[in-house]
Design goal:
Strand order of the largest sheet: 13-12-11-7-10-9-8-14
Order of helices and strands: EHEHEHEHEHEHEHHEEEEEEHHHE
Shape: globular
Number of strands: 14
Distance between the termini: 54 Å
Length: 361
């Protein structure tokens, strides 16, 4: 019997969830909910599920086994907790939530109700990312020295004006970092390990009527001693593919979206040459660099399959709630460092106060 999926929030990203579910053997899109019934009906009419305008009614549907949360970032907690309390497994679009307290409430609800909790970070499932992780864990880089993430994207003013929640602390949780670059933040700390401390600067330079940053830079010190940089913006026309750079005493790798641009080691093997060739031209989309809808759903499908496996086997998914919390904590630490102009030590002891941090034009 197929595992039934229900989607909460029927905006743009819900289409990618529905397409991913549609392609997975043993999974079925059965329901969706949105406060605006017409949005739910649009998604249901395209993918064949039942449209709900009452969340509790959808959660009471016995055909729904897994709920995916596609609401604005700062509105993830309430439906996620409700789903967990209803005994449904929960998959939450990035970020898990916009404060550590709200993240912890989701994690706690899922643990109490013995349901799977997973945070969407599809970049980890790209083949190039998987090979890079294996190389790091296998010691091919020698002593890790630098780990950098660059997200130089572009968003128009119309993008921010298209929804009242966009660019707000309450519902967006932040700007270029929390909404766009969080994929690369997650990837970087997955590869390099925990961050020990950081300093940062943020600014709002190219957009009006937003509370949050459209430019951010951070200097990191990892627990393993390596240093690193995060750069994020939505003010870099025309928008470039996101990039991860890993350097060590015996190797360097550079990944641009899904493509390996550099794969060089002191001890190159035939397998290394094969990896470099195989992942040289994998990127098939714009990666969201200039158009948030210009992404694929294949990696979402890989992550959904991982969640289904964890449900069936009673194991943790590759990216659980705690994993999702890590990137939120790093970004909140960056915001705190920028606001206070001080080095911030990790882990954070509490949620920082972020309102009125960035200058709005």
């Amino acid at each position: 019997m197929a595992i039934g999926f229900g989607i909460v929030g029927c905006g743009m990203i819900s289409n990618f969830h529905a397409r991913a579910i549609e392609e997975i053997r043993g999974a079925k899109f059965v329901a969706c909910f949105d406060n605006r019934l017409e949005s739910a009906e649009r998604l249901a009419s395209e993918f064949g599920g039942v449209a709900y305008s009452d969340l509790n009614a959808m959660l009471a549907d016995p055909k729904v086994d897994v709920v995916t949360i596609c609401t604005p970032s700062g509105a993830h907690m309430e439906p996620a907790v409700a789903a967990a309390n209803a005994g449904k497994h929960v998959i939450i679009e990035k970020p898990l939530e916009v404060t550590l307290k709200r993240c912890d409430k989701i994690i706690d609800a899922c643990e109490r109700n013995h349901v799977v909790c997973s945070t969407i970070f599809p970049s980890r499932f790209h083949g190039a990312s998987q090979e890079l992780k294996k190389a790091i864990d296998g010691g091919k880089f020698g002593t890790l020295s630098l780990g950098d993430a660059y997200v130089k994207w572009f968003r128009t003013q119309e993008y921010y004006d298209s929804g009242a929640w966009r660019g707000t602390w309450a519902l967006d949780g932040g700007g270029a970092l929390m909404n766009q670059a969080i994929h690369s933040v997650d990837l970087l700390i997955w590869l390099m390990g925990p961050v020990k401390s950081l300093s940062a600067q943020t600014a709002t330079l190219a957009h009006q009527r937003i509370e949050v940053e459209d430019v951010a830079t951070a200097a990191l010190k990892f627990e393993n001693g390596a240093l690193g940089v995060i750069e994020a913006t939505t003010a870099a026309f025309p928008g470039m593919l996101k990039k991860i750079e890993i350097h060590g005493s015996e190797g360097t790798a550079v990944i641009e979206e899904e493509d390996i641009k550099t794969w060089e080691f002191a001890k190159m093997t035939a397998k290394d040459k094969k990896i470099a060739a195989e992942f040289a031209s994998k990127t098939q989309t714009g990666g969201g660099a200039a158009d948030p809808s210009a992404i694929g759903h294949a990696a979402h499908a890989h992550q959904f399959k991982d969640v289904l496996k964890s449900i069936k086997q009673g194991t943790k998914p590759a990216i659980d709630g705690e994993e999702g919390r890590r990137s939120v904590e790093i970004i909140l630490a960056i915001y705190q460092a920028a606001k206070t102009n001080r080095v911030v030590q990790l882990p954070l002891k509490r949620d920082p106060v972020l309102k009125s941090k960035s200058k709005t034009k």
